[in-house]
């Protein structure tokens, strides 16, 4: 195999991912995972060009993230349809950038629609990291149109995964589901999402307070209603929590549903902040003590990893890849998604439990440093790239 290495064996990577124009304003999911991974890559010798197709970008341009990392932003045209834009223009742009950058390897971060860019790329030197289980996510859409769109993306995902040769799994949960799809694999690795180094500070959350934090897209799948109902139930028992909710709604029907619930429950201690940048989220984490994620489905939530890195006590439903992240009553707490009182009872036990929260928070931060530190994840990823480029097929890479 002929490699286009820089002197000294430095890898050149072309990564395709959804990057916001301001990386510190990433809104979870693939955006946050990519921003955090770049933070780790910046401390290595790898040369990385990220190709990001975005709405709201007037013209194609590059931004230098670090001396060896740049991000190439490309407008989505026609903007009304991501699928159509990638089919009509995305592949041509990718091939043009690939010819100019001459990378050793192409790494696509994402699922579904993003995989429309695969045709024309060499299987041997293309890596895919699927970040979502789209068939599961389709179950929690609020309108028939959104459900249909998600199912179409899931079909694309299934089609591509059957042909993918080199895959990075972010959780064992997603690995097991993808393994059920037919297709010959050459290389696979289990590498968790990274967390930006900014979250690994010595700041200790205010465990002497009774303050909850939720960070994420406000969708039916994230199930913020369960948190609101728990806060109301606890208030009735004299266990009062302040609750900060960071994120925003993606569709009107669900927003109206949550707003009606908030009005009916009369919860003045709940504050909706909308999306916030990284520094604002870190400040809220420092002011709070307990992070809550009552989702109905997750693959490997970046927000939980961020909260653990910040030393917060995390209470999350035991769905998807969450149990891989949290050891119950050691580095956080797992509640039962099928039992509404499960979350309430755990939060009731944590109310005023300063010493216990300090102990759990310290253990959570230790686990996060071992698993999600950006430099460690970047080094694991580079090692997987080297294995892929070695041409040694069918090796068990950390699975």
Can you walk me through this structure?
- Mean pLDDT is 91; it is low at 395-399.
- The protein contains 13 helices and 15 strands.
- The longest helix is centred in the N-terminal third of the chain and has 20 residues, at 82-101.
- It folds into two domains: 12-194 and 373-396, Glycogen Phosphorylase B (Rossmann fold); 199-372, Rossmann fold.
- The strands form three sheets. A six-stranded mixed beta sheet has the order 3-4-2-1-5-6, sandwiched between helices.
- The protein is α/β, with parallel strands linked by helices.
Q: What is the average of the pLDDT values?
A: 91
The total domain count is 2
Low-confidence stretches: 395-399
Tell me the name of the CATH class of the largest domain.
Alpha Beta
Structural class: alpha/beta
* CATH fold-level label of the largest domain: Rossmann fold
What's the architecture of the largest domain, going by CATH? Answer: 3-Layer(aba) Sandwich
- Oligomeric form of this entry? single chain
- Taken from the alpha-carbon principal axes, the silhouette is globular
Number of DSSP strand runs: 15
The N- to C-terminal Cα distance equals 25 Å
Question: Sheet bearing the most strands, described?
Answer: 6 strands, mixed
What is the name of the CATH superfamily of the largest domain?
Answer: Glycogen Phosphorylase B
Give me the number of helical elements: 13
Helix content: 40-55%
Main sheet strand line-up: 3-4-2-1-5-6
Strand content: 15-25%
Instruction: Write down the secondary-structure element order.
Output: EHEEEHEEHHEHEEHEHEHEHEHEHHHE
What is the CA-based Rg, rounded?
Answer: 21 Å
